[in-house]
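Changelog note: in this version the structure field was regenerated for every chain. One regenerated record is shown below for reference.
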Amino acid sequence: METKRQWSPEAKVAASIRAKARWADGEKRKFWGDSIKKPPCCPDCGETDIAKFYVDKDGGRSNKICRECHKIKCKERWHEKPAIDRQAAKAYKYGITPDKFLEMLEKQEGKCKICGKKPTTQRGLHVDHCHKSGVVRGLLCHGCNTGLGNMKDDPEILLKAIAYLRNNHE
């Protein structure tokens, strides 16, 4: 699974400088044709700073609208869907169909496979999977899912945590 690239403030500034330099390059402007001659202008908010648009490796815009408006539109489209459809749609990442997700959800009666509680957050239940084999194990609430992740999905660490809690429980 690909991880999301994190940009440091310095990297953002450097990328912006590179994009502006490519934008100003007359040869590239000629190569790209008329569309590059127009400065960027987001049709939704009027943003004109090229650094606030998605750009490809050559400095060309890869989207008509700026990053912020793009994020807003994506979020609006995502939240137009019913919550159950959003959860089922995310299941494809783990190799299960939306129907299989809904079947698992029904089998678990909409409850976390570890704590047995219905999720209290909008996130709903998460698809838990083995990070080594990729096999889906069940649906977990956010707390149980992050708890397993923090314990590195290691039964030995979990047993030590249980012993720790039992020895220090008041």
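Spot check on this record: The longest strand covers residues 136-140. Helices lie at 9-24, 26-32, 34-37, 67-80, 83-90, 98-107, 142-150, 155-167.
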